[in-house]
Amino acid sequence: MGALGVFTYTNFVIAAAGVVALFCVKKAAKLVFGLMSVFCVALGVLAYTAQPINYAGSQALAFFAIAVVAVAVVLRFALKKSIFLAKLLLCGSALVSLMLLFG
């Protein structure tokens, strides 16, 4: 297994562990949400920069995945409403970013 395989599987494992932790961890929920938000933004940036310049649709989807993280953070911390929806938005952002990056 090469470096790309390690990178791919590591991102899948981190994303899966983050999704499970989002819905299962109760004591450090804000910390898990913050770490997952940072991971989703980093994944979105990687997905955005991995697309060729003439794939505008894929770049727009990656940018949308980054914007969804911002909406989730506002829902979770600023409005303190719809925490479950914010968690679902983070999961969706991670899924779209992984799909664009490795799909």
- Class by alpha and beta content: mainly alpha
How would a textbook summarize the main sheet?
none
Overall outline: flat
Unreliable residue stretches: none
Count of distinct strands: 0
Overall radius of gyration? 14 Å
Strand content: under 5%
Helicity level? over 70%
Compute the separation of the termini in Å. 18 Å
The run of helices and strands is: HHHH
The overall average pLDDT, rounded, is 92
- What is the number of helices? 4
What is the secondary structure topology, with strand pairs?
Elements: H1 3-24, H2 29-50, H3 56-78, H4 83-102
Helix pairs in contact: 1-2, 1-4, 2-3, 2-4, 3-4
Q: Can you walk me through this structure?
A:
Helices cover 84% and strands 0% of the residues. Helix 2 packs parallel to helix 4 and helix 3 runs antiparallel to helix 4.
Keywords for this entry:
103 residues; mainly alpha; 84% helix; 0% strand
Short précis:
The protein has helices at residues 3-24, 29-50, 56-78, 83-102. The protein has 103 residues and is an all-alpha fold.
